[in-house]
Amino acid sequence: AQSVTQLDSQVPVFEEAPVELRCNYSSSVSVYLFWYVQYPNQGLQLLLKYLSGSTLVKGINGFEAEFNKSQTSFHLRKPSVHISDTAEYFCAVIGWNNNDMRFGAGTRLTVKP
Amino acid sequence: SQTIHQWPATLVQPVGSPLSLECTVEGTSNPNLYWYRQAAGRGLQLLFYSIGIGQISSEVPQNLSASRPQDRQFILSSKKLLLSDSGFYLCAWSDGYSNEQFFGPGTRLTVL
After folding, report:
1. CA–CA separation, A26 vs A5, rounded Å?
2. How many other CB atoms sit within 10 Å of the CB of residue A33?
3. DSSP string, A42-111
4. Minimal CA separation from B73 to chain A, in Å
5. If you ran DSSP here, which 8-state letter would residue B98 be given?
6. Do A89 and A77 meet the contact criterion of CB atoms below 8 Å apart?
7. DSSP string, B2-49
8. Which terminal Cβ of chain A has fewer Cβ within 10 Å, N or C?
């Protein structure tokens, strides 16, 4: 089975500053990795995903993430955040051979003016 | 295009009352379907998933149950709600190939 650890439960940052949300995973098989964003009282929206190929993945809203197999990490980054980026962010992992997607506990990103 | 619906959007129920939450998917056939619960300040907990009509897998023992009476309909039920059942319930679907899951808007359940 797979598991995910999001190292920061809350990340406060000022507007236009860069941000990194950290995610580490563990798995005995090859994995696919995802970042989702959740705005208050809404479902989850996919930001980006890594399935194969280039380890640097670009997503919506200016976010990107880098898959690092040796460090089993998939950290999410944005060079300059906006107030509208304030939300909960979830990292998720699924094994290539199963339907069992595991989510991290989430990181609450708060962007302050 | 595919869409996923959940209803009701919000629900307030007394302890001991029954529950029925519905999820339907449009624009695809034979999807994998999932029920998650999100408690306040916590991540998503997978409750049930289904790869076909009548095929339900339970991840966590609890007083909840799930059914899939039709290909694109997934129902979450309880005979008697507990206070601990309060939370945000999310339904999701995937096509089983890309492994990406698409989420519904969620149902906020408050048990009093």
Report:
1. 9
2. 24
3. S-EEEEEEE-SS-SEEE-GGG-EEEEETTTTEEEEEESS--GGG-EEEEEEEEETT-S-EEE---EEEEE
4. 18
5. S
6. no
7. -EEEEE-SEEEE-TT--EEEEEEEES-SS-EEEEEEE-TTS-EEEEEE
8. C
Contact B19, B76 (CB under 8 A): yes
List chain A residues with pLDDT less than 70: none
**B87 touches B109 (CB < 8 A):** yes
Joined together, the tokens standing for residue A1 give 């089975």
Q: Are B81 and B42 in contact (CB under 8 A)?
A: no
Q: Please indicate whether, in this complex, the C-beta atoms of B99 and A51 are within 8 angstroms of each other.
A: yes
Q: What is the pLDDT of residues B35-67, one digit of tens each?
A: 999 877 678 888 999 999 989 988 876 789 999
pLDDT digits 0-9 by tens, B85-108:
999 999 999 987 777 899 999 999
One-letter identity of residue B34: Y
Cβ of A43 within 8 Å of Cβ of B46? The answer is: no
Residues B89 and B20: their CA atoms lie apart, in Å, by 12
Residue A3 vs residues A20, A43, A100, A107, B17: alpha-carbon distances, Å: 20, 21, 10, 16, 34
A52 touches chain B (CB under 8 A): no
